Amino acid sequence: MPHAENQRSRSWYLDPLAARQKQQAHLELVARWAGKGDGRLLKTDLFEEANGADQLLFDLCGDYGRALGFDHDFATVAQASLRRPDGAAISFLACDARCIPLETGCIDVVVSNSTLDHFQKKSDFAVALEELARILRPGGVLILTLDNPLNPLYWPLRWLSPAGPFRLGYTPLPSELRRQLNRARLEVVDSASLIHNPRVVSTLLFLAIRRVLGQRADPAIRGMLRCFAALGSLPTRRFTCCFYAVAARRRD
User: Fold this and answer.
1) Which domain CATH number covers 172?
2) DSSP label at 187?
């Protein structure tokens, strides 16, 4: 059990079932694209580890010889450290993604889930991407997920985001991301679309269902999550997914 679990054990920003769906989708991506090993894994952004059931680092740390996580906010790093499972070999850093205090080529796998898309400027996004590429060893894998700008709900959410817990920023189209990755000496080897729940709309809908049904809400919400997930098998999935993901390998 995570240490100090009683402090924050629920995803206050997501329905618990939606949080587990998001977590599972990301863990499956990492398993498919990076597998397991004795090397070092780094996760950017500790918001989930500090706050929610959709955390990834605590589940991934046992698959690698050493796991690290960083966030620019010291309070978030401290809270994530408190929720770390007992005995987990995880190191925490408070730093900016544009200037990571790690040696060049020292990381085998970087998991960056919707982190760089919080920068407001394209130039900051590019600098952070270069930093992630720099710390990867040759042949190392970057697993990157970003907000999907092709989703029609992304733009109103971005407009409203300054009033929320985090602000949405610059996110490139998939074709532009490939160009930026190539400039950073990263070669795209696979891609995927993630989470087809309509953002904000589904959160409010699940909240309403829980208020009406109480303890009996889980079956209804699970059914709706399955229906939304089915959108991922349609040709329109690039417009319905909340996030798009790429696996990119560092060239020699």
Assistant:
1) 3.40.50.150
2) E
